[in-house]
Amino acid sequence: MGRGRYRGKRVAVLLGGLSCEREISEQSGRKVAAALRGLGYRVTLVPVGRDLPARLARLRPDVAFNALHGAYGEDGCVQGLLELMAIPYTGASVLSSALAMHKATSKALWRAAGLPTPRWTVVPAAAGRRVVAPPRLPAPLPVVVKPNREGSSVGVSIVRRRADLARAIRAAARFGGDVVIEEYIPGREVTVGVLDGRALGALEVVAKGEFHTYAVKYTAGLEEFHMPARLDRATTRRVLALAEAAHAALACDAYSRVDFRVDGRRPFLIELNTLPGLHALAYLPRIVAPAGIDFSALCERILDGAALRVRESRR
């Protein structure tokens, strides 16, 4: 795979979209576009809506840089469209995108692979909307309640009293789909960047509040960072190895960011992001910088990986 193989080609940066993470995607997409233009790429910003097929047909890009987040952009839908239109695209495949977006499925695959993840149960969508009595819990309180197919901590609650459980389930169910109730793991919040199957570092993120809500993640000054994470060497090696194993278990072949909770020396997989943010407050650029990869180089490496997708899709 050659470095900068798409220089001089038509690059469509997909941004915006139809999910509740639209604003964050726009920030990622514009920052990526600026970086690629600075390297000499011919970049067109493509706001994503229901007219995306027609837009792409008119533009006829040589490659698509997927800067979308959340539903439709991160769950395999846009990836499937790009496959059908024979447009190389960045990020994970249709299958890997769908698996990672579906939290319960990714956790089941990790457990089958012998990887540690908190205990969980699933409340079906219809039951979640009308729930009155709390369902059976996977672990003693507190528990984490979250939508099965959302990112950026959208709809997530930490429930410490049984009296609050039904309300939290109904709140998560408003985003559509099933609701996951997960064992709460105390400890450190650690996230690992994986590029081309290799874990490049572990970042510890400390929220100035109870946990990393959507507002905390996307408001400057509400988080502090420790790079590398404040873990002993053995635990760090374990976390990096688990991130690579989690990436492989979901058949990811591009890049990802893998989130953990680390209780003492015991890491637990929480979720995997196949399209981690690339905006000003994003974690992935912080993780790869100590490895000598600046933001522009990161964007170019991600773009170079798009060639792998179209080669595989035409087998």
Could you please describe the fold and organization of this structure?
The structure is a single chain. The chain contains twelve helices and twelve strands. Strands 10-9-8-11-12 form a five-stranded antiparallel β-sheet. Strands 4-7-5-6 form a four-stranded antiparallel β-sheet. The mean pLDDT is 90. It has three domains: 10-91 and 296-313, Rossmann fold (3-Layer(aba) Sandwich), CATH 3.40.50; 99-116 and 186-274, D-amino Acid Aminotransferase, Chain A, domain 1; 120-183, Dna Ligase, domain 1 (2-Layer Sandwich). Helix 1 (22-38) links the parallel strand 1 (10-16) and strand 2. The two termini are 18 Å apart. It has helices spanning 22-38, 52-59, 77-84, 94-101, 103-112, 125-130, 165-173, 214-217, 233-249, 284-288, 295-304, 306-313; strands spanning 10-16, 42-48, 63-66, 120-123, 143-147, 157-159, 179-183, 188-195, 198-207, 223-226, 255-263, 266-273. The chain is an alpha+beta fold and 315 residues long. Helix 1 packs across helix 11 (295-304).
Radius of gyration: 19 Å
Q: How many structurally independent domains? A: 3
Helix and strand composition category: alpha+beta
End-to-end distance, in Å?
Answer: 18 Å
Here the CATH topology of the largest domain equals D-amino Acid Aminotransferase, Chain A, domain 1
Low-confidence stretches: none
Number of strands: 12
* Main sheet overview: 5 strands, antiparallel
